[in-house]
């Protein structure tokens, strides 16, 4: 697909600005905690940064500007940002004006893009717009209802959990490596949204809880996928996995989309694959990202 010149210019400018504004604090190497080699991001600086932040040795100021965070989670560029802003305008534009959304957006001082280019009325981190659009989509599609619970596999710094709490009053069971769960809990606490987060060690989960995993379950190897399938997915009624397995399955020794689909269906889930839908943006299209949902 041929990309528009303005899109190419914006993405190039985003990369240049990111290169100038990104930071790189000193971090302690923890020598590789158990289970980290099971995923694409597990052995990256991201996990150490979460350790430092979750244990209070690193502040939240500039957290989203750190290159190790931008490599894994703060990843959305301006073209996709304007796609997500368009979705939010379509589904619930009032959230673009919401002061709590602005507070979450500014947390960690992410690099923002001007509102007139995003079509968002004010500057935003494009990644925040993805979380906001995703939370609205989960609500629109009935995956969450007011006060329900969701299990998120691979939570990043908790941006989606914060939006789900704010928009739908939803409790998120945060399933990630322990340092990442602690970092996401700290982020929620800093916004007084801590009541919307639970650690994965908390066994009490509603039987109606839906599963969500964006760019995460499909970055795991087969053994880790099996563990989460048995623990959470097999018994779930609904779920959505944004799958980048076309990119990562072979290098991490995970499953292809077809293998995932067959496995889920054999396990009794009415799963289907969507190559296009309302939440998949232009970057997803370029990277052959799809959605597996049931
Ligand atoms: C590309 S990030 C996506 C984060 C988030 N879903 C988002 O959309 O911004 C991949 C996530 O998978 C997490 N992860 C890595 N290893 C994991 C594991 N063994 N179990 C659960 N999550 C893991 C990372 O810590 C990170 O939060």
Relevant terms:
single chain; 294 residues; alpha/beta; Rossmann fold; 7-stranded mixed β-sheet; 13 helices; binds S-adenosylmethionine
What does this protein structure show overall?
This protein has helices at 5-21, 45-54, 67-70, 78-91, 99-106, 115-118, 126-140, 159-168, 178-190, 222-233, 245-252, 257-266, 282-286, and strands at residues 149-153, 171-175, 197-199, 210-214, 239-243, 272-274, 290-293. With 294 residues, the chain is an alpha/beta fold. It has a domain at 128-293: Vaccinia Virus protein VP39 (Rossmann fold). Strands 3-2-1-4-5-7-6 form a 7-stranded mixed sheet, with helices on both faces. β1 (149-153), α8 (159-168) and β2 (171-175) form a beta-alpha-beta unit. α2 (45-54) packs across α9 (178-190) and α4 runs parallel beside α7. The protein is globular and about 45 Å long. The relative contact order is 0.12. The model has no long low-confidence stretch (mean pLDDT 95). S-adenosylmethionine binds at residues 35, 38-39, 41-42, 72-73, 153-156, 175-177, 180, 214-216, 219-220, 224. The site of S-adenosylmethionine (SAM) has 21 residues, from loops.
């Amino acid at each position: 697909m041929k990309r528009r010149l303005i899109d190419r210019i914006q993405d190039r400018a985003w990369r240049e600005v990111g290169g100038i504004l990104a930071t790189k604090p000193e971090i302690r190497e923890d020598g590789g905690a158990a289970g980290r080699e099971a995923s694409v991001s597990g052995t990256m600086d991201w996990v150490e940064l979460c350790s430092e932040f979750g244990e209070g040795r690193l502040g939240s100021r500039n957290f989203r500007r750190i290159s190790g965070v931008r490599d894994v989670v703060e990843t959305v560029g301006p073209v996709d940002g304007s796609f997500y802003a368009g979705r939010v305008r379509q589904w619930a534009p009032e959230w673009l004006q919401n002061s709590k959304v602005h507070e979450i957006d500014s947390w960690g001082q992410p690099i923002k893009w001007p509102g007139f280019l995003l079509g968002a009325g004010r500057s935003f981190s494009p990644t925040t717009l993805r979380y906001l659009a995703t939370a609205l989509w989960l609500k629109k599609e009935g995956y969450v209802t007011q006060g329900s619970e969701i299990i998120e596999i691979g939570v990043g710094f908790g941006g989606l959990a914060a939006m789900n709490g704010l928009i739908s009053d939803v409790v998120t069971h945060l399933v990630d490596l322990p340092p990442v769960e602690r970092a996401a809990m700290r982020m929620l606490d800093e916004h007084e949204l801590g009541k919307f987060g639970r650690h994965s060690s908390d066994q009490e989960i509603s039987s109606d809880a839906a599963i969500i995993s964006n760019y995460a379950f499909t970055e795991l190897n087969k053994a880790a996928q099996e563990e989460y399938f048995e623990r959470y997915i097999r018994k779930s009624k609904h779920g959505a996995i944004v799958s980048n397995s076309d990119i990562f399955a072979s290098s991490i020794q995970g499953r292809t989309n077809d293998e995932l689909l067959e496995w889920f269906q054999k396990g009794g889930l009415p799963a289907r694959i969507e190559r296009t839908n309302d939440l998949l943006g232009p970057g997803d299209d370029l990277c052959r990202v799809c959605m597996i949902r049931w």
